[in-house]
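Structural prep section.
Before we set up the soaks we want a predicted structure of the protein with NDP in place, mainly to decide which crystallisation condition to try first. Input record follows.
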Amino acid sequence: MAERGVVPVDQVITPWTSRLSGFHKLPVAERIAQVVRLCRLTPEEASRLGGEDALSLEIANQMIENAVGTFQLPLGLGLNMQVNGRDYIVPMAVEEPSVVAAVTFAAKIAREGGGFTAEADDALMIGQVQVTKYGDPTEATQKLLAHRDELLALANSFHPTMVKRGGGAKDIEVRVLPAPEGPQSEPLLVLHLIIDTQEAMGANLINTMAEGVAPMVEQITGGRVYLRILSNLCDRRLARATCRIPVTALADFDLPGDQIAEGIVQASRFASADPYRAATHNKGVMNGVDAVAIALGQDWRAIEAGAHAFASRDGQYRPLSTWKIEGEELVGRIELPLALGTVGGPIKVHPGVQANLQVLKATTTRELAMVMAAVGLAQNLAAVRALGSIGIQKGHMALHARCVAVTAGARGPWVEKLANLLVKAGHVKVDKAREILSSLSQEELAAATGTG
Ligand code: NDP
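Run finished without errors. Recording the tokens verbatim:
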């Protein structure tokens, strides 16, 4: 077991950087010690980071129903990230090999062009109220718009503290949607409450406001309200990130930079034209975004739903990120909705999340959104760089081989050793791993499987 939390927070001011060369080669205990020093974590935070005290059963039991335990995922650190000139060490909780390595590697390339620039919108979310049996849709719309101020005042009366913070319900809009196929021909009438949720993701407070205004909506329209809930398509709460990489900095695999850049641009064109490809392209983006979201206690189902709905906004499912060559630079851009919180949900409740936030050192949801957008773009860069040139299997299989080695029974230093043998054999499969293990002497096998 790695020694966690034993390194005191020293008084030496360590220059803040996410460029931790050789970090991946360190034993886990030394990695933790380095992060503890750099991020000035307390021993308690360090042990939460290491997973020991990340989440007690007692707290888990308060978080969900029928709790019987906690479930762990590997936590890695995405390094080299630089967003708007600031360095970030990015906690990522993910079970898939190569995700953390990909972000770290791509962020290093992006640094060559000054890192990522990013921006994020205000925390404007949408609460939906579905109205039926309202009579004439134009008349009902006009009536609702005429009562805008009363509706906003009523919505805000359910959350005066949000108003004091500068947030709360800011506006309304009314949408009339064609009736879907079925026996009922009534068009859909939907009232949107536009709500600034400040530092919260906002689902609960939006739902409270949407439910709260429903009686007034019925009174105004003479109709009947059914659903009252937030929309996860939060297209007013977008985050955007860009990176500009000198084409020459992309040279790799014995290929010149312009050839790699061309492969990346072709990958982008493919995803823009074909939803089958765009789905996989965006899966790669979300590999990074979700891993950060999980580590930071964000509702990643909400983020996923929002991202994919946004990707389909013009009627065709499209990539969240694109790549172009502009002059001597490869330019990547990403835009996606990110409804995040630094308060609410499990964020202040989950000790592991608190420790991870301490590592990331992003203090506002806006900053969090900018980092997550940059992580999504970095993840995508790593994927399309390999896909557009030598393919991903070579790199991926080297990392996957470690999982295969563990599945076959290898433990300790033998995981790496067996993984290397599998890659060398060009056959990364559990049966091959077992075959290699069975060819060992009794003594070696005991050492390799930790049964000695
Ligand atoms: P919470 O209700 O847990 O917390 C938000 C509250 O935090 C605010 O209402 C506010 O309460 C308080 N707060 C303190 N400081 C601030 C600040 N600076 N800015 C804003 N609020 C502050 O969480 P959310 O409303 O954010 O809802 C998120 C949760 O809802 C997530 O756990 C999500 O999984 C879940 N959810 C998601 C749904 C979806 O996505 N479809 C549906 C339903 C639930 P006060 O003003 O009283 O201090």
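Observations: DSSP finds 17 helices and ten strands in the chain.
Flagged for discussion at group meeting.
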